[in-house]
Specification:
Elements (H helix, E strand, L loop, with lengths): L1 H38 L2
Length: 41
């Protein structure tokens, strides 16, 4: 049972890291988009 809880917490940590990476990636793309629109590159 204890290992099962560890497994769940590891899955939660992996999902948190993945969601953080995805949100940062999309915000980075939006930043690039805004910069290109602003400087009309």
């Amino acid at each position: 049972m204890f290992l099962y809880f560890i497994h769940l917490s590891l899955e939660d940590a992996a999902l948190g890291v993945i969601s953080l990476f995805v949100s940062n990636f999309f915000s980075f793309r939006n930043l690039i988009y805004v910069l290109t629109k602003f400087f009309k590159i």
